[in-house]
């Protein structure tokens, strides 16, 4: 798969429809980071007039997962990936456009190399912060990913 925002958003539509319906979109694909955005709207609101926490979670996980998928594809190896843990903190009401970014490509590259050499599962922790239009952090998430080279 080519990693462009439009192709990734089509992937989200068909593979993670709840995220797509909630407005989660990949907005930037770079060599070492992924940017995902979501606009606060009626479909993703909570009773407190801000964005529902689960929508923020979908956007933040997508940022970490796409960066991982991109790095895995570059190896040419078949490597499975799975979220095995997650935590999040909410700092400010999420209103307007919220942008999540994962830029921990070095952690991913290191874990992939270890998984290929050792042929054992590796656990890595990736983070993604959500910022509002004024640049204030509204939420921070950490995901524990497990990766393992598939045996052929």
Text of the CATH class: Alpha Beta
Which homologous superfamily in CATH is the superfamily? Hotdog Thioesterase
CATH topology: Thiol Ester Dehydrase, Chain A
Spatial gap, N to C terminus? 21 Å
Total number of helices: 4
Proportion in helices: 25-40%
The number of domains is 1
The appropriate CATH architecture is Roll
Structural class: alpha+beta
Number of strands: 6
Walk across the major sheet and give the strand order.
Answer: 1-2-4-5-6-3
Low-confidence stretches: none
- Write down the Rg: 15 Å
Largest sheet: 6 strands, antiparallel
Describe this structure in words.
This protein is an alpha+beta fold. 36% of the residues lie in helices and 34% in strands. The protein has a six-stranded antiparallel sheet.
């Amino acid at each position: 798969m080519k990693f462009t925002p439009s192709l990734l958003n089509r992937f989200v539509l068909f593979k993670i429809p709840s995220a797509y319906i909630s407005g989660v979109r990949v907005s930037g694909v770079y060599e070492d980071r992924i940017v995902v955005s979501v606009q606060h709207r009626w479909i993703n609101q909570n009773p407190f007039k801000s964005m529902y926490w689960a929508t923020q979670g979908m956007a933040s996980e997508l940022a970490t997962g796409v960066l991982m998928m991109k790095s895995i594809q570059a190896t040419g190896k078949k490597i499975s990936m799975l979220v095995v843990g997650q935590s999040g903190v909410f700092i400010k009401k999420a209103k307007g456009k919220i942008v999540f970014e994962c830029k921990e490509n070095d952690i991913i590259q290191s874990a992939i190399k270890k998984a290929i050499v050792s042929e054992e599962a590796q656990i890595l922790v990736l983070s993604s912060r959500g910022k509002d239009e004024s640049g204030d952090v509204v939420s921070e998430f950490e995901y524990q990913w497990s990766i393992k080279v598939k045996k052929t």
